[in-house]
Specification:
30% of the residues are buried. Helix 1 (5-26) crosses helix 3 (44-55). It contains 8 helices and 10 strands. It has helices at residues 5-26, 32-41, 44-55, 84-91, 113-118, 145-152, 183-186, 245-248, and strands spanning 99-103, 109-111, 121-130, 134-144, 160-168, 176-182, 192-197, 200-201, 211-213, 226-232. It has a 5-stranded mixed beta sheet. The two termini are 27 Å apart. It has a single domain (61-248), classed as Sulfite Oxidase, Chain A, domain 2 (Alpha-Beta Complex). It is α+β, with helices and mostly antiparallel strands. The structure holds the ligand Nc1nc2c(c(=O)[nH]1)N[C@H]1C(S)=C(S)[C@@H](COP(=O)(O)O)O[C@H]1N2 and molybdenum atom (MO). The site of ligand MTE has 17 residues, from strand 5.
């Protein structure tokens, strides 16, 4: 840690100098002495502002330590999909589960859980924030979505990844939960399709056998019970056309930073 400190300072110094040059160019009346004390005094805020300026959507979500884990990770929304097909898969411990991958890809695929577990993975302890006003910290392990998309090879028109889930939201068995993210989030290093929570197979109440973790977005973007991925150029013709089950009811599509 100590060794990297001067390098970090130099990085921030350079970034601040660049930000300063931009601000001064755009606002000539502000003298250098007026502007400089302000930004230096802002300390940490100035650093994180500069970091955001440089890293943007590539910035990492905060990660935690095992000591921070919530005693139990609660369930929200669907806790047990009301579907015969899903119940049959669960009864067989998901041996027959396949993740279907299609849409704007060169190589459509159908992956078993064993296939998914053989792909490059990531393990991360992160905080889940639900708009209903609760948070929980859990340890997730899963296949990197980037690795799956690289293997499937996106076609040039690809813009979004849609996640179709197993749980029907209406009594008649139609109207499945679904979500979508753009390619910035899809290729983010912390975006995984998780098959483990807290070192155990993902429980049914949290989305077994596979759920999305897209760590810079709010809870409803983290699709559980993911059955199929579709790469698309638009979601205008999918369900309500807003890119997700809750979005179709009026929630924001972009629920992140
Ligand atoms: N398929 C599906 N995914 C879902 C939901 C759902 O009802 N069905 N609820 C969402 C919401 S609002 C939240 S906060 C999280 C809850 O995840 P958890 O059950 O692991 O706490 O899942 C999200 N993903
Ligand atoms: Mo939520």
């Amino acid at each position: 840690m100590k060794n990297t400190e001067p390098a970090r300072r130099r990085f921030f110094a350079r970034t601040l100098a660049a930000a300063g040059a931009l601000a001064l160019a755009g606002c000539e009346r502000l003298s250098k002495s007026d502007w400089f004390p302000q930004i230096l005094g802002a300390g940490e805020k100035a650093s994180s502002f500069a970091l955001h300026l440089v890293a943007g959507r590539k910035a990492m979500a905060q990660e935690f330590t095992p000591a921070d884990l919530s005693p139990s990770f609660r369930s929200n929304g669907t806790a047990d999909p009301d579907s015969d097909a899903y119940r049959a898969l669960a009864a067989g411990e998901f041996a027959d589960y396949r993740l279907e991958i299609g849409g704007l890809v060169e190589h459509p695929a159908s992956l078993s859980l064993a296939d998914l577990k053989s792909l490059p993975s990531r393990t991360q302890i992160t905080r889940h924030d639900c708009v209903e006003g609760w948070s929980a910290i859990g340890k997730w392990k899963g296949a990197k979505l980037a690795a799956i998309l690289e293997a499937a090879q996106l076609k040039p028109a690809a813009r979004f990844v849609v996640f179709y889930c197993a749980d029907p939201m209406a009594g008649d068995g139609t109207d499945l939960y679904y979500e979508s993210i753009d390619l910035d989030d899809a290729f983010h290093p912390q975006t995984i399709l998780a098959y483990e929570l807290n070192d155990a197979p993902l429980p049914v109440k949290n989305g077994a056998p596979l759920r999305l973790r897209v760590e810079r977005q709010l809870g409803y973007k983290h699709a559980k019970y993911v059955m199929r991925l579709e790469v698309v150029d638009s979601f205008a013709n999918i369900a309500g056309g807003k890119g997700g089950y809750w979005e179709d009811q009026g929630y924001q599509w972009f629920a992140g930073i």
